[in-house]
Amino acid sequence: GRRLLAADLRNAAARGLVGLCLLEAGDVAGAGPLIEEAVDDAPEDWRLLLNLSALREVQGDMDAALAAAEQAHVADPSRFEPWGRLGDLLARRGEFAGAVAALERALAIQPDHPGMALLLAGAAYSAGQFDVSARALAVIARAAPSHPQVLQLRTHLARRGGDGAAFAAAAEQWLSADPASVPARVALAHAC
Q: pTM here?
């Protein structure tokens, strides 16, 4: 596949894909010029802007990564991926209210995406929006009910809600799913 794309490097999309492949393989120096040139040639292509966002993140420039993600969602606000990327970056910067807004937009476009729902549940919890976190958790729980992160969030939401029985049950399930988790042990100790 990469040889076929490399044969047509005049095409911005092909350059962007080859650059992304190089980036994912750890060749940041080789990826950079291809991704940057692709964006220069097609500055309104949301896919290429997301590639640029990933490049800037790997290069350690989170401001530029965020700016490229913002450009991507402006380029095509109907796409799920730019909203998800924007929400993820905002959450990692600790800007939870903005992350919640972006991730809710992503899930409005693709409502059953468990990965985005997990990001939303965590960002909403961190923003103190526990009702939003619980709704997002319900989406994740349909796909992965015993995933340790699902159980961790369920435990924290039960504790916040003051439901001792639900708190204890969730903490016990969390520890069963992740026996090496010290936070799960602490949660269960507090629940008992």
A: 0.86
Q: Concatenated DSSP letters for the chain?
A: -HHHHHTTTTSHHHHHHHHHHHHHTT-HHHHHHHHHHHHHH-TT-HHHHHHHHHHHHHTT-HHHHHHHHHHHHHH-TT-HHHHHHHHHHHHHTT-HHHHHHHHHHHHHHSTT-HHHHHHHHHHHHHTT-HHHHHHHHHHHHHH-TT-HHHHHHHHHHHHHHT-HHHHHHHHHHHHHH-TT-HHHHHHHHHH-
The tens digit of pLDDT for each residue in 124-169 reads 999 999 999 999 999 988 888 888 989 999 999 999 999 899 999 9
User: Averaged over 167-173, what is the pLDDT?
Assistant: 93
Q: Measured between alpha carbons, how far is 148 from 141 in angstroms, rounded to an integer?
A: 11
Cβ-proximal residues to 88 (8 Å cutoff; 6+ apart), any chain: 99, 103, 119
